[in-house]
Every structure is written in structure tokens, then in C-alpha cells.
Amino acid sequence: MQFEEIRQKAYAANMQLPQLGLVLFTFGNASEADREKGVFAIKPSGVAYEELTPEKMVVVDFDGNTVDGVLRPSSDTKTHAVLYKHWKAIGGIVHTHSTYATAWAQSQKEIPILGTTHADYNIVNVPCALPMDDEMIKGDYEAQTGFQIIHHFKQHGLDYNEVEMILVGNHAPFTWGKNASRAVHNSAVLEQVAKMAYITLQINPQAPQLKKALIEKHYQRKHGPNSYYGQ
Ligand SMILES: O=C(CO)[C@@H](O)[C@@H](O)COP(=O)(O)O
To answer: Among 34, 61, 120, 198, which one carries the catalytic annotation?
Structure first.
């Protein structure tokens, strides 16, 4: 099998999504890149997870053209491709329609830092990119979703190596990381943080943001020098 390593890794990451309760039916996809070869392996479009195999993964280049595989790549392939092309340090991307994160995206709201669970992963609110205008939707919609994410990061001075997740307004979340496994982890964390924030604001709509000093403390414990993720 050609591109065996990325096919296996992308397959394993995709299979984790239903196991973690992050996708229903075929509502999502994961990909793993091989930077040296300039390609990534992604889930085929519309194929049920129980029917997935490493051989069914589709290998495409960073413009979204199929390089190896017989099935149609995910309809989100061009979004993945744009992110890989612009953000050279990422090796894996996940898109889900997980319930709580998607509800925040549909509400077009950032997720505020209300507790240390959030601060363990992010020093800022989980960002939410604005929905597209009609012209963007008429154009290359899936590529535009990628550009919309990149534009949001630039506009808000965010670093994709620090913040590995975003909500796309009216749509759903995208996460990324050094590989697909890390991107899956980030999707699960995002869903949990989204759920906790929603419940917190139901209990106390005036719940305050976490203090800056605690945000720093918690983030640095996980990401600073000598930490697991800081290595
Ligand atoms: O975003 C969406 C649908 O809104 C897609 O991610 C979802 O339907 C999965 O599509 P694919 O089966 O990957 O083509």
C-alpha cells in the first residue's frame, strides 16, 4: 500500500472520532500529513466509520488534488489543504460537528475562559470566525473556509501553534496539531470545554472569566518548559 504510514495514522484518528462521541454518522473527518512528500491522507466523503479501512483513505496534495486513492475525498478536503499550505508546522487536522462546540459555532460566539480546564489548553477564548458572506459562499466554499480561519487568526494576532482550535460561525469546529492524534485530542478537549462553559453560564449567566494570573499558571504548567506539551 502506497503512503502506508499516513493512511494508517489518518485511519486511526478517524476511528477515534465516533469512539469519543465526537461524530454522528459521517459528520466529520480527520487527516494526517506527510510534509516531505507534500501530501495528506483524509477520510473519503460519506463513508460510514464502520466501513472505513486504511486503504480507503484518500491521499491528496496541498491543493486538494487526489494523488492516490479511488474514493472521493471528504468534502472538507480543500479546507484541510488551505490550512496545511499556510500553516507549515501542523501535521494533522480534525473537523467534527460535536454537539456543544457546534452549538457555540452556530451561535457565533467565542467560548470564554471560565475555568482552569480551558486554561490548560488555551490562554485566550476559543475563537469563532465570522460566517461567510454570499460572494465567498458562491466561490470555492471549502477553500474559503480555510482562508476564513487563517484570516481570523491574522486579524486577532493569534498563533496557530498556541491556539489549536477554532469555531467557524454557522458551521462547526476545526482543530489541528503536530499530528492527527493530537488534533483528535484537541477536538475532545474543545467539546468538553464547550459543554462546561455552556452549563456554567446556565447556572450563573454572570460567571466571571478566569483571572489572568490563573490562566498563565495553568497554561504554563502544561505548555511551558519541562511540561509534557512544551517538549
Ligand atoms: O461540514 C460538513 C457538513 O456540514 C461535513 O464535514 C460532513 O458532512 C462530512 O462530510 P464528508 O463525508 O467528509 O464529505
So the answer is: 120
The whole domain housing 85 covers 4-223
Residue ranges in the chain assigned as alpha helix (H): 4-19, 77-86, 99-106, 116-119, 134-138, 141-155, 180-203, 212-223
pLDDT tens digits, 36-76: 999 999 999 999 999 999 999 999 999 999 999 999 999 99
- pTM of the predicted structure, to 2 decimals: 0.96
Q: What is the pLDDT of residue 230?
A: 65
Check residue 104 and give its pLDDT. Answer: 98
Tell me, in angstroms, the distance from the centre of ligand 1 to residue 72's CA: 12
Assigned domain for 52 exists: yes
Number of domains in the chain: 1
Q: The domain that contains 184 carries what CATH number?
A: 3.40.225.10
Ligand 1 centroid vs 45 CA: distance in angstroms? 7
For residue 44 and ligand 1, the question of a CB distance below 6 A is answered with: no
Instruction: Examine residue 139 and state whether it is found in any structural domain, yes or no.
Output: yes
The ligand 1 atom nearest the CA atom of 47: 12
Coarse DSSP helix, strand, coil percentages of the chain, rounded to the nearest 5 percent:
45, 15, 40
* Domain-embedded: residue 228: no
- Residue 11 within a domain: yes
